[in-house]
């Protein structure tokens, strides 16, 4: 019987085993998922943190804008109160003039004065009357001709088309108010003071005297009110600067205000930004900020610009809002690095956490894969042993004790292997018995072949002849 051929064993590389491949697969899946999670978490954390910082910055900017609005409103309210007081004063000082004109008219009716005498006395009184040191009265007829004016260059001239530096037709507008149903009114305009050449802001009050069809009026210069408002605004600027210095929204963040020329008009106390226009980057930045500010009040426009407020040129996040009435641009500035810092820190924590989870997942995955693969390796070893006729069913006892699919496979293979071993044993016994029978049959066949040969038959015949020759003759009995 020919020998059974043992199948050649194939050498396996380290990474060709199931355990290595499964471990590699688990590692790849966990690493990819960990990287995706870490990147997404880091980006989300950084974005959320930056968004929160920008929102906080916008809230501070908006609150500061409300502070400026309130300060300006207080200044304007004080100015308006002063103007209203000044207007009320004009109406009060004009009342005696109106009473004088009425007395003169009654004198004409009584025959005490002629109309010409009464009107001349009225005009002389208007020209001569003074109050508040240099403030005066004037009179015009319905055509806009000055019939009583303390300034000789205007006396007797028609000024109906005269405009102030702001384009206001002063006499025309005053006549419109005097001839209105109310018979009086106020007008804001610019006028040249006596003995001066530069126009100054003025508020005028006029009333119409219908019996003579005259317009009588007076006015007071309000440059003192504007100076007081300007001084109040300077005080407000200083107060805003003090408030800006106390607003702490980041380590290097700052608030400041630019005018329409890019000059710093409000800066935090203790910070010197006056040199901003003296540097190339400062001039460029100021020009850009002013031109980029929103045109409407209450709107915040974000911008990122290069600045060197801390000595190093770097990107700064800036929020801009404008105050058209003041001609101001409020700027809140924070280094972009400070906005990104919390997000970067949180992103790093997220990355480290993801790395820890990934490492733990890898350890658990590898241990789990080892627990799964080890019984498979035992079954594989048993299969090889079965092929080598060295199979021992007891080597699968541990794997067969499992309650999962691998345990079912191990138990099935254990029974199958035991059956194969038993059948092989019986087959070998049968082969041994068959070999004995075959050997005996071969002997019989060889013996038969010898007896059937011509030589053996010839020997057999000679032996028979010899036996016959040597044997005595047999006498037959009667």
TrEMBL record:
It is a multi-pass membrane protein. Keywords: Cell membrane, Membrane, Transmembrane, Transmembrane helix. The lineage of its organism: unclassified sequences, metagenomes, ecological metagenomes. PANTHER family: LYSOZYME-LIKE PROTEIN-RELATED, METHYL-ACCEPTING CHEMOTAXIS PROTEIN MCPB. It is found in: Cell membrane. SMART domains: Cache_2, HAMP. The chain crosses the membrane at residues 22-43. CDD domains: HAMP, PDC2_HK_sensor. The keyword Aminoacyl-tRNA synthetase does not apply. InterPro entries: Double_Cache_2 (IPR004010), HAMP_dom (IPR003660), sCache_2 (IPR033480). GO terms for biological process: signal transduction. One of its GO terms (cellular component) is plasma membrane. Residues 370-425 form the HAMP domain. The keyword tRNA-binding does not apply. This is Unannotated protein. Signal peptide: none annotated. Its main location: membrane.
